[in-house]
Amino acid sequence: MVSKYSLKQNENVGIVVEENDLEMALKTAAIQLGVERNRIEYRVIELGKTGILGILGKKKMKIRAWETNSASVLSDSIDFLSEIFNRMGINVDVAGIENEEGLLLNIKGESEGLVIGRRGQTLDALQYIVNRYIQRIHEGGVRIFLDSEGYRGRREQSIKKMAITLGKKVKRLKKPLAAEPMGSVERRLFHIALKPDRELRTESRGEGQRRKVVVYPVKR
User: Fold this and answer.
1) What strands lie across the sheet with 15-19, from one edge to the other?
2) CB 60, CB 21: distance < 8 Å
3) Can you name the residues that pair with 98 across neighbouring β-strands?
4) Measured between alpha carbons, how far is 82 from 107 in angstroms, rounded to an integer?
5) 14: phi > 0 → left, psi -120 to 50 → alpha, else beta; which?
6) CATH class of the 71-149 domain in this structure
């Protein structure tokens, strides 16, 4: 499915860029348009081709790129997420704003706990689904973040405290210790919280839902 906005933009709006690969084309387009990389949508006009020996006769990739219409992306995101909740029979309201990182959708309602899920797993899954949808209908669209009544901020502070507490214990006992299993977003926060401490190093271990962060003392 392609939004009406994307169809219109794909025809004659924006600039045409030729580069060796897609990433380089997007960077060039961002510079020419004077916007951040995540503010660009694009359509591939011609795929690049590798020439003989990977050099001779190489054909560059050509794309048409334009600045993202944030209002359109926000509207499509809210409509899509609201439809998911309607089909699930969950009564909540979805509102959105634009910030420096992308678009933030805030979910409010009596079913807040159900929307968040255990340790935010449902919220993370919904965020992933919405982003995949937006990336499909707004090619290269901005990133969407989901929150519910400030849950992300509260959980982030909780993870930081947990990481610091475990780090102190590792230094005291001088042996590696593992945190509780967490999702990828929370593991990233855990790693970031302990990164400045040169007496510790962290590593993610395990598979699937049992994946966790292990904190090690650094030997000197």
Assistant:
1) 15-19, 61-67, 40-46
2) no
3) 103
4) 10
5) left
6) alpha beta
Give the pLDDT score at 29: 86
Tell me the CATH number of domain 152-217, given options 3.40.50.2000, 3.30.1370.50, 3.40.50.20, 1.20.1260.10.
3.30.1370.50
Query: What confidence score (pLDDT) does residue 117 get?
Result: 86
- Mean pLDDT of all residues in 143-165: 93
What tokens were used for 61? 């990739």
Tokens matching residue 118: 């255990």
Q: Indicate whether this model's pTM tops 0.70.
A: no
- For residue 43, the cross-strand partners are 64
Cross-sheet strand order for the sheet of 177-178: 177-178, 212-217, 200-205
Q: Dihedrals φ, ψ of 52, to 5°?
A: -60, 130
- Longest Cα–Cα distance in the chain: 65
User: What are the distances in angstroms from CA 110 to CA 83, 104, 134, 220?
Assistant: 17, 20, 27, 53
Could you tell me how many helices (H) and strands (E) the chain has, helices first? 7, 9
